[in-house]
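testing teh design pipeline on a random one, pls ignore if ur not involved
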C-alpha cells in the first residue's frame, strides 16, 4: 500500500483518491479553527500561492481530538477558513488522527514517517511533507511554522 491508494472525502463531501495528487509535493496538515496555531492557515495559504504552479498541494484535515478545538461541522469549518484566511487549498472532512478510529491516511503517515515513526499526533497543525514519488520526506511538530518549511518544499519541487 502507498499513499496514493488512500481515499478521503473533501470538505464538500466528495470521495477522492489521493492518487489524484500523484507527482505533486504534498504538505498534509491536521487543522483546527480554535487553536493557538490556527493563524498558521495564513502561512499555509501563502506557501500554496507561492508554489502551487510548481506542483505543491496542501491538504488540510480538520480534527477535533485536541481539546475540542474544531467543534464546527464541515460547512462551518470551510467558511471559517475561507473568510478568515482565504484558504484555497484543499480541505477535507473532519477526521480522527489518533485512536481506534484513526483515518487510514494518518495510519499510513504515522507508520511510514522517518521522523517520529509510530508516535501519535501530538497536537493540531502537525505537518507531513510528501515527495513527488509518495515518500514521506518529513514530519514536523505544530511549532514548526509553514514559512520555516519553505526551503524544504522548494528542494522537493
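output:
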Amino acid at each position: 500500500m502507498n499513499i496514493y491508494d488512500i481515499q478521503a472525502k473533501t470538505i464538500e463531501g466528495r470521495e477522492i483518491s489521493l492518487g489524484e495528487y500523484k507527482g505533486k509535493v504534498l504538505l498534509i496538515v491536521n487543522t483546527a479553527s480554535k487553536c493557538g496555531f490556527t493563524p498558521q492557515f495564513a502561512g499555509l495559504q501563502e506557501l500554496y500561492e507561492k508554489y502551487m504552479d510548481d506542483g505543491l498541494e496542501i491538504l488540510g484535515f480538520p480534527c477535533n481530538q485536541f481539546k475540542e478545538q474544531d467543534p464546527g461541522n464541515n460547512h462551518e469549518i470551510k467558511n471559517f477558513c475561507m473568510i478568515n484566511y482565504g484558504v484555497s487549498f484543499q480541505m477535507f472532512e473532519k477526521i480522527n488522527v489518533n485512536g481506534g478510529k484513526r483515518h487510514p491516511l494518518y495510519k499510513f503517515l504515522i507508520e511510514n514517517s522517518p521522523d517520529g515513526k509510530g508516535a501519535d499526533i501530538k497536537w493540531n497543525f502537525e505537518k507531513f511533507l510528501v515527495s513527488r514519488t509518495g515518500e514521506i520526506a518529513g514530519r514536523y511538530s505544530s511549532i514548526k511554522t509553514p514559512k520555516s518549511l519553505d526551503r524544504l518544499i522548494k528542494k522537493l519541487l
